[in-house]
Write a structure and sequence with these properties.
By secondary structure, the protein is of the alpha+beta class. The chain has helices at 28-39, 48-54, 58-67, 108-122, 137-145; strands spanning 3-9, 12-22, 70-75, 78-88, 91-99, 127-132, 149-151, 157-158, 161-162, 164-169. 31% of the residues are buried.
Length: 174
């Protein structure tokens, strides 16, 4: 793993560490599985097409890995989280952020976002942005905690599922 960070909960270190590394095509099945398991409890809140777009299959994950950097977070040998970015005209677009329900609350989403921010800084990218659904309140809380703010910018829906766009303006490199 690129990074290995001990997790703490209530000031006590948890014995398993979480490692974050670049995803490779061989991770595609595991990444697709994480996305499916992370979002399945919310499936009734999506339109059918919106949900299908949210949980890409392994072949689509391979394409994403080729389009821009993607990462996996693992606890021991199990991949428990993922995130990726793709360069857009207006900045780096964060997509495919997910953590398995059994690993939520351990700081894994924050670790992935820290990695994404490092790439933004390394690439002198002035802006990170993402789209999420208003019902993913835990994710929105995390994004706000690390400096993302809601914008009026679209898109405002994904195949009929409502979306919220958030951005984080990166400090200028001096």
């Amino acid at each position: 793993m690129d990074d290995s960070t001990p997790l703490t909960m209530d000031g006590m270190e948890i014995s398993l560490t979480v490692g974050v590394r670049r995803a490779v095509p061989e991770d595609a099945w595991a990444v697709a599985s994480v996305l499916k398991h992370a979002f399945c409890e919310y499936e009734p809140l999506y339109t059918r097409k919106g949900y299908e777009a949210t949980i890409p299959n392994a072949a689509e994950i391979v394409t994403r890995i080729q389009e821009g950097p993607a990462w996996v977070a693992a606890r021991g040998q199990q991949i428990v989280g993922t995130g990726s970015v793709v360069r857009k005209e207006t900045g780096l677009y964060v997509r495919g952020m997910a953590v398995l329900p059994t690993a939520r609350g351990l700081g894994i989403g924050r670790l992935l976002l820290e990695r994404i921010e490092r790439v933004a800084v390394e690439e002198n990218c002035a802006r990170l942005f993402l789209s999420t659904t208003p019902f993913l309140t835990r994710a929105i809380h995390l994004y706000e905690a690390v400096g993302f703010k809601a914008t009026a910018e679209g898109p405002h829906e994904l195949f009929g599922t409502p979306l919220l766009t958030m951005e984080k303006v990166m400090a200028e490199n001096t």
